[in-house]
Design goal:
Elements: H1 2-16, E1 17-22, E2 25-30, H2 41-54, E3 62-67, E4 72-74, H3 99-106, H4 108-117, E5 122-126, E6 129-131, H5 133-139, E7 143-147, E8 151-153, H6 167-175, H7 177-186, E9 189-191, H8 192-198, E10 203-205, H9 210-222, H10 226-239, H11 244-258, H12 262-272
Parallel strand pairs: 2-3, 3-5, 4-6, 5-7, 6-8, 7-10
Antiparallel strand pairs: 1-2, 8-9
C-alpha cells in the first residue's frame, strides 16, 4: 500500500508541475489552477530539481517556466498545506526562533539560485497574476513575457510580512532601491504595461499570442550559441555583485572558455566564409 501511495503522489506531482522537452526547449508548467497555481514545498522543490537537471543536459538549450489557466501565474506559497515539523517537547511553542530561517534557506533559497545559476537561458511566461514568491520566481528568470492582463504584486506588506524569495535582491537591481521600496511598501498592483515601463518584463502581448511568442523566443534561444549564452548569463548576473576589476578578470576567463567551444569556432569560420553560422550548442 505504501508503494501505491508513493506512486500516486509521484503521478500527482508530475501532473501539477509538468515537464516536457520540445525542439531543445524545456517547458516547466505550474498546473494547479484549483489552488491558483500556488506552490507547496513539494512543488517548489520539483521545479528546483527540474531546473537543476537542465545543467549538463545537452538536449536542452533553453527553458520556459509558465502556468496553466488565465487568472494566475503563481500567487506564491500554498499556505493551506501542512508542513512537516520536527518533534516538539511538551510545552514548546508552535514555532520557535530559527525555524522560519531554516525553512527559507532549505526552500525558496534553493529554488531561486537554481534559476539564476542555470546553464541555459530561462524565460518566464506570465499568463496571469504573479504575487509574492510567484513574482520573484518570474523576475529571477532571464527574460519575461507577460500577457496584457497579467500583473505583478509585491504583496507582502498587505499581510504584514517581509519580502522573501530573493525579492529584496532582484527588485532594486531592476528598478532601483527607491522604486523598489515604493513597490514593496505600498504593495500596489503592477499591471503588465507598467511592468514593461519599469523594466520588469521584456515584452507584453495579447493573451492569444502569449504561447506563440514564448515558443518563438525560446526556440530562437535554443537554436543559438548555447555556451555563449551560458557565459553571458553568468557574467551579467555576476556584474550585479562584484567590482569592475573582478568582472574584467571573469570576463577574460569567460572569453577563454568560450573560444574553445564548437560554436565559437563555427562563428569565426562562418564569418570568414561569408555564410550563416550553424550553431550546435556545444
Amino acid at each position: 500500500m505504501a508503494d501505491d501511495s508513493q506512486d500516486q503522489q509521484s503521478v500527482a506531482i508530475e501532473d501539477e508541475i509538468q515537464f516536457v522537452i520540445e525542439n531543445n526547449v524545456a517547458w516547466i508548467t505550474i498546473n494547479r489552477p484549483e489552488r491558483g497555481n500556488a506552490l507547496a514545498p513539494i512543488h517548489r522543490d520539483r521545479i528546483r530539481d527540474l531546473v537543476e537537471g537542465l545543467n549538463g543536459n545537452l538536449e536542452v538549450r533553453a527553458a520556459v517556466i509558465t502556468a496553466s489557466g488565465e487568472k494566475m501565474f503563481c500567487p506564491g506559497a500554498d499556505i493551506s498545506m501542512d508542513r512537516d515539523r520536527p518533534p516538539r517537547p511538551e510545552g514548546a511553542p508552535e514555532s520557535s526562533v530559527g525555524e522560519a530561517r531554516r525553512m527559507m534557506l532549505r526552500g525558496q533559497h534553493t529554488l531561486m539560485p537554481a534559476i539564476l545559476d542555470a546553464d541555459v537561458p530561462i524565460i518566464a511566461v506570465v499568463n496571469g497574476t504573479a504575487a509574492g514568491m510567484g513574482a520573484h520566481l518570474a523576475l529571477l528568470c532571464d527574460l519575461v513575457i507577460m500577457a496584457e492582463e497579467a500583473k505583478f504584486i509585491e504583496v507582502f506588506a498587505r499581510r504584514g510580512l517581509v519580502p522573501d524569495a530573493l525579492g529584496a535582491w532582484i527588485l532594486p537591481r531592476l528598478v532601483g532601491p527607491m522604486k523598489a521600496k515604493e513597490l514593496m511598501f505600498f504593495a500596489d498592483d503592477i499591471p503588465a504595461p507598467m511592468a514593461l515601463e519599469l523594466g520588469l518584463c521584456n515584452k507584453v502581448v495579447p493573451r492569444a499570442e502569449l504561447q506563440t511568442t514564448a515558443k518563438e523566443w525560446a526556440e530562437r534561444l535554443a537554436s543559438g550559441p548555447t555556451k555563449s549564452f551560458m557565459l553571458t548569463k553568468w557574467l551579467v548576473n555576476r556584474s550585479l555583485d562584484v567590482d569592475r576589476q573582478t568582472i574584467a578578470d571573469e570576463e577574460s576567463w569567460a572569453v577563454e572558455l568560450n573560444m574553445n567551444s564548437v560554436d565559437a569556432n563555427e562563428g569565426i569560420a562562418s564569418f570568414r566564409e561569408r555564410r550563416p553560422p550553424e550553431w550546435r550548442g556545444f
